[in-house]
Amino acid sequence: MANSMRSLVFFLVAAVGEISGCYAFWIWLRLGKSILWLIPGLIALIIFASALTRVDASYAGRTYAAYGGIYILSSIFWLWLAEGVKPDRWDLLGATICLVGAVVIMFAPHRTTF
């Protein structure tokens, strides 16, 4: 259980890093703000990549796939908290479906060899 909680923390840190890093690029390119937004954006993306490598999983592909569910849920929160758009039932249903998939990917008894 401790490894699961540790992995969840790293998934959440990765999500904040990825979303905020990408949002910094959005601010620069889509909103026409200063190129200096790339500095915190790049730092955040480095945090994202570093955190994702700390997740307790045997294979990178499974880690990235399971992270997708956490990323989607985090993006819905970002939509609400940072952009002021309240998620609707379809946003929440989609995020729930993705989280179920992430749990299956991370905790199913996978074969270790092919």
Question: Which features characterize this protein?
Answer:
transmembrane, 114 residues, transmembrane helix, globular, 0% strand, 74% helix, 4 helices, mainly alpha
Structure summarized in a few sentences:
This protein is mainly alpha-helical and 114 residues long.
Structural class: mainly alpha
In DSSP terms, counting alpha (H) and pi (I) runs of 4 or more, how many helices?
4
Task: Give the overall pLDDT as a whole number.
Answer: 91
Tell me what portion of residues adopts beta-strand conformation: under 5%
What is the number of strand segments?
A: 0
Largest sheet: none
| Rg over CA atoms | 16 Å
N-to-C series of helices and strands: HHHH
Describe the protein's architecture and organization.
This protein is mostly helical. It has one domain. It contains four helices and no strands. It has helices at residues 2-29, 38-52, 60-81, 89-107. The radius of gyration is 16 Å and the shape is globular. The mean pLDDT is 91.
Secondary structure: elements and pairs:
Layout: H1 2-29, H2 38-52, H3 60-81, H4 89-107
Helix pairs in contact: 1-2, 1-3, 3-4
Family: Belongs to the UPF0060 family.
Organism: Floridaenema fluviatile BLCC-F154
Protein name: YnfA family protein
